[in-house]
User: Fold this.
Amino acid sequence: MKKIIECVPNFSEGRDRQVIDRIAGVISGVEGVKLLNVDPGKATHRTVMTFAGSPEAVLEAAFRAIRTAAECIDMRKHHGEHPRIGATDVCPLIPVSGVTMEETVEYARQLARRVGEELHIPVYCYEHAAFTENRRNLAVCRSGEYEGLETKLKDTRWKPDFGPVDYNERTASTGLTVIGARDFLIAVNFNLNTTSVRRANAISFDVREKGRKIVVDGIETVQPGTLRHCKAIGWFIKEYGMAQVSMNLTNLGVTPLHIAFDEVCEKALQRGIRVTGTELVGLVPKSTLVDAGRHFLRKQQRSLGLPEEEIIRMAVRSMGLDELKPFDPKTRILEYLLEDPAGEKSLCDLTCRGFALETASESPAPGGGSVSAYMGALGASLGTMVANLSSHKRGWDEQWEYFSQWAEKGQDLISRLLHLVDEDTLSYNRVMEAFSMPRETLRDKEIRADAIEKATLYASRVPLETMKTALEVFDILEAMTDKGNPNSVTDAGVGAPAVLGAVKGGYLNVLINIGGLCDKEMARSLREEAEKLLAQAKERENRLWEHVKAKINQ
Assistant:
């Protein structure tokens, strides 16, 4: 798996576009890095930038950005709503794929050392990269903020992990930078229909993990808030004319965004206040909004077996993510932004007409294998449609979860079969590449023969997988024919020959591909498996077809 880490530095400049663009420019200029988002805030006087790429490229981009911020931002002149301690206030690294947290810790410490030694900026390491327990918490590292930095550095307990230990002219300008490795953090502001900071703070104290201080029987104690791994404060944003509960969620596995939203709504309502919308800062993982959309669908007793895009739209509408400005998932979801727009397009990205015409062209791919997988996907789509229609049929409310589960399975099968549409064409291309390998020497011929055998075996297994996956679709079609909305029984019925066509097509492609295998025992095994799958498909299609006709004639 390709190694990818994300970096989300926060710079103490949110108003001067030239400075913001200059920092963003040095990040974009590093090969192997993609700048995903630039989110400036005038009131907070702070800009959050998000970029991702290979670890080495991300470390270089982060270093250059910190250096540029030190050149452009003078902390002696900085004032804003958000807590801060340096020109580059905080610079976390987050593992995305192919990288462990332990590796990310080492990357963070490498960056911190280089910033301290080459840029002469004091650095604290925080979260998983912290050298001591008391520096794990960002708020603790930032305590006293920039104005208290000179006094803080005189305390030996707060000696920087890297960089100068004394307060000097350069430190006065750059402040201190906090660098670390952390899990994915979501920064979010919940909009309130009030201008009262005191009431916004009261709500934040209700929910944040550390809660509030209270006096019980004359003894001061702490009353914890209701949300774990949650940090929150209340503030007033003049730009919006409203108070907000500003929150960081540091462990989405324990406290996901939708749970935080519901809890803030409940606590606000108890104080006569309403949450009118949600402002996400920076980017979010796709799973955050998919989980939220599924949560709100479940609360409405609606089917969860909907396309990903529709589930995300439910999350956006339910939490009011577009109240203050338009929310475009394509520019705010991390996985979408990491997709290469110039990369090779999937067959599934084509229109129906485009796919048909591409298949009809002079090129041998896409061919029968891809079309077979697509027929299976269409059969699964019909079964899923019946499940979704049945889940909200009048008078069937108590069965919504039963149909929702079938619709979710349908969406999974659609996704798997659409993947096989492209995979079949890719496997064909792999065989053609193997045949085009050089064969000048005996060693060349051996390498080429081995590559052809492996590519042919893979090309045989792809249509076999199409057969197996398409066969699973009969489960949905049978359940929907038996118990689904009777008005849609013919839709399930149409799915049956589509699935049989997928299995038959897969079978033919297995047969033609195994003919090129040198391993005849493997070829025999694949043929036998394919024949068993074909026999099952024929029997199930015939039974389902007769069942549908009987339903129509009732």
Notes: The CA atoms of residues 109 and 129 lie 7 Å apart. The longest helix spans residues 442-483.
